[in-house]
What does this fold into?
Amino acid sequence: MSAPPRRSAARRSAVATASRGGVYYYAGGTICGLANARRWQSGLRCVAEPSGGSIDNLRALRTGAVQFAIVQSDWQQAAAAGTGPFEGFGPDRELRSVLSLFPEPFTVVARPQSGIVRLSDLAGKRVNIGPAGSGSRATAEVVLEAMGWSGGDFAHLSDLGWLDLPTELCEGEIDAALVIIAHPNLLVEEMMSACGAVLVPAEAEDLRALVDAHPAYFPYSIPAGTYPGQAAPVPGFALAAGLVTSSRVPPRVVRDLVGAISGNLPEFRARHPAFSEFGAEQMLGEGMSAPLYPGIRGYLEETGLLPVPANRAAGGRARRRPAGCPQSCTLARPAAPGRHWTSR
It folds into this structure.
């Protein structure tokens, strides 16, 4: 009688995300769900951990408290360079990019009675910029500085968590909130349906100069019809949410997690509209500042998500397409809905 197949020794990997109500936590849970479905073959057990957001995640990754993290592209760049909130720690030379997952627009949500119809109208209002340690707050502070504003230019700047916003906004405790989020978002929809909250264009000359100067930012419009009653696109800018790891994490662990995504890419993309916006080439380039973890591009070529370069394809290397992966999986850099490509 043949012996049963041996299972790989269990290896636990944690993915730092953000608050439980946000898209980061949902994305981390989706990735871990796909990985855990293969755990009897890979031996990898994946856990999505809630956190304070991008900056906390990058600090936890650096200390080895987690093996993976979902972070904003601007703060990935700052951690790799040792600037901004990471200035006292120096560059994180072990930080590695894995995949860019989806675009995250800088989003301004306002009460309809607030009189806020453009970005400049925020001055003198009660504005929530998010909790300390979150990437969303740190990016909001960059925007305020670019606009020439300080705390004294507002009636009040609050640090509410994401889950508190619908109640506080709709009850009139704040006039507007600045957040970095993927769309559509259930809490934005809740605010719009409960009290008629509106999305405000994030446009200004000073802001355009910021976007042009920052490699992690790109022009973006939230498409019309993303939310009920939203008849027109909402212009502004976005950054990329990316999956990162450390060079200390073993290659097999990284390969198993990437394989869970790439081997089930149609399923991953179906979980949230934002997850389908990046093409395969964008997933390996958009917003990545840290070096790419070694071997990822070759692995995606092997699985058919990226075309093999002609000089290697001529050598007879075969490509396999994952089961259920459509032809579009191999298309390079398609323009996503709402995306305006620039020469950068």
